[in-house]
């Protein structure tokens, strides 16, 4: 895929997790804040997860402290809403547009409209799958393939204890993120690549829970009805993992023990569940890059050269590490 080639060849800059932190305050969706010289239209994915809430707060707080006039919209996980929001930002002649594309494909037309209007675009968090990388100035966000690989590596390294029924096969139920979204596609890819190293590990069920707690719970309930030998849940985010925990407990099983759980993001509720032994491993995905986004936006508007790809730095947590990290957890 093109975006991966870009990742490998263009100047990649790593943003330290804490350096990218914003404080938490919020102005409410659809609002305009700040009042500085630069105006930014931001088309957010939605409010589907703890990651997203923290990301929105970080962006709003960072705009305020950078003196950037932020126009913010929430697309409720619908691409058509994001496209509408971007078109309205073009009409309003904002100085810069930033957005986190809900899915990877289908952006060329609206991005060409922005280009024709000479409004620079910055991608945040999620990538687009487009052949034309001149349609955006920079992409600031995590490497989701690497995140999937970290999850897969953990399972391969912990294969023995993850065969919870001891029958020689590790049956994995996968809760995928939003269908067509970069993090869902890439996390699956990275995970599958790593578990291929161990024949005993099998994905026996895989379905989208749309990155929501409710989605994770419902899909897990149906997985549990049709499979009585699931050893491991691989959830593409914490909210779905927390929903799966509810379903597993309702089915009379012990999450973290009878069924191991691997999750992604590292939001506080899930870190607590990890510390409590209900989740086994979390791969961090850091949403606190608001300050970094505002810095890139200012440079873009000033006509300065910016890096095409800016990575967010992140780690992983096991149960002991979660206990140590919880008191200072920012999201
Ligand atoms: O992992 C999930 C959210 O795009 C990285 O979106 C983001 C993902 C995150 O809904 O919780």
Automatic annotation (TrEMBL):
Compartments reported by the entry: Cell envelope
Alphabetically ordered keywords of this record: Signal
UniProt entry tagged with the keyword Metal-binding: no
Matching CDD domains: PBP1_galactofuranose_YtfQ-like
InterPro entries, per the entry: Peripla_BP_I, SBP_2_dom
GO molecular function: carbohydrate binding
Family matches, as Pfam families: Peripla_BP_4 (PF13407)
Keyword rRNA-binding: no
UniProt signal peptide: 1-19
Predominant subcellular localization, coarse grouping: other
Residue ranges occupied by any Periplasmic binding protein domain in the UniProt entry: 46-305
Cellular component aspect of the GO annotation: cell envelope
Family membership noted in the UniProt record: Belongs to the bacterial solute-binding protein 2 family.
Protein name (database record): ABC transporter substrate-binding protein
């Amino acid at each position: 895929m093109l975006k991966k080639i870009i990742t490998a060849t263009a100047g990649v800059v790593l943003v330290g997790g804490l350096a990218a932190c914003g404080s938490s305050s919020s102005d409410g969706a659809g609002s305009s804040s700040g009042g500085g010289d630069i105006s930014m239209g931001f088309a957010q994915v939605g409010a589907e997860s703890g990651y997203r809430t923290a990301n929105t707060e970080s962006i709003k707080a960072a705009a305020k402290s950078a003196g950037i006039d932020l126009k913010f919209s929430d697309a409720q996980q619908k691409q058509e809403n994001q496209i509408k929001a971007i078109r309205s930002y073009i009409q309003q002649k904002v100085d810069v547009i930033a957005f986190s594309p809900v899915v990877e494909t289908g952006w060329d037309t609206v991005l060409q409209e922005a280009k024709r209007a000479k409004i620079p675009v910055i991608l945040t968090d999620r990538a687009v799958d487009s052949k034309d990388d001149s349609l955006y100035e920079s992409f600031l966000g995590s490497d989701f393939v690497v995140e999937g690989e970290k999850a897969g590596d953990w399972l391969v390294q912990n294969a023995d204890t993850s065969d919870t029924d001891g029958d020689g096969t590790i049956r994995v139920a996968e809760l995928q993120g939003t269908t067509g979204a970069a993090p869902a596609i890439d996390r699956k890819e990275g995970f599958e690549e790593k578990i291929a190293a161990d024949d005993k590990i099998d994905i026996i069920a895989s379905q989208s829970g749309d990155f929501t707690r409710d989605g994770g719970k419902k899909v897990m309930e149906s997985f549990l009805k049709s499979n009585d030998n699931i050893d491991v849940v691989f959830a593409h985010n914490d909210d779905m993992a927390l929903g799966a925990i509810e379903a597993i407990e309702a089915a009379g099983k012990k999450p973290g023990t009878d069924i191991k759980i691997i999750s992604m993001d590292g939001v506080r509720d899930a870190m607590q569940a990890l510390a409590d032994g209900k989740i086994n491993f979390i791969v961090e995905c850091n949403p606190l890059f608001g300050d970094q986004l505002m810095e890139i936006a200012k440079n873009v508007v000033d006509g300065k050269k910016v890096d095409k790809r800016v990575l967010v730095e992140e780690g992983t947590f096991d149960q002991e590490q979660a206990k140590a990290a919880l008191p200072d957890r920012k999201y």
